[in-house]
């Protein structure tokens, strides 16, 4: 049977994701990329030091929010960090 919430009880929160943040940034000026003028960034995880290839993003604000790390958020990899 499912637990019902009281009127003022908050639902349980999800566990926070481990995020990767911008390690290098630039702007596309030449090459095969069609989105000229948009920023390109590389992300790096501070926990496991995983680094991505270049991403084309719409804004730097979007990039600064970070993206989830595929290694740290994977169930098998969690034991490596402890």
Describe the structure in your own words:
With 82 residues, this protein is mainly β. It has one domain (19-81). The protein contains one helix and four strands; from the N terminus they run E-E-E-H-E. A four-stranded antiparallel β-sheet has the order 3-2-1-4. The longest helix is centred in the last third of the chain and has 5 residues, at 60-64. The two termini are 36 Å apart. 9% of the residues are buried.
- So what's the oligomer here? single chain
Sheet with most strands: strand arrangement: 3-2-1-4
Decide which structural class fits the backbone: mainly beta
How large a portion of the residues is in β-strands, by DSSP E? 15-25%
Rg, rounded, reads 18 Å
Number of strands: 4
Mean pLDDT across all amino acids: 80
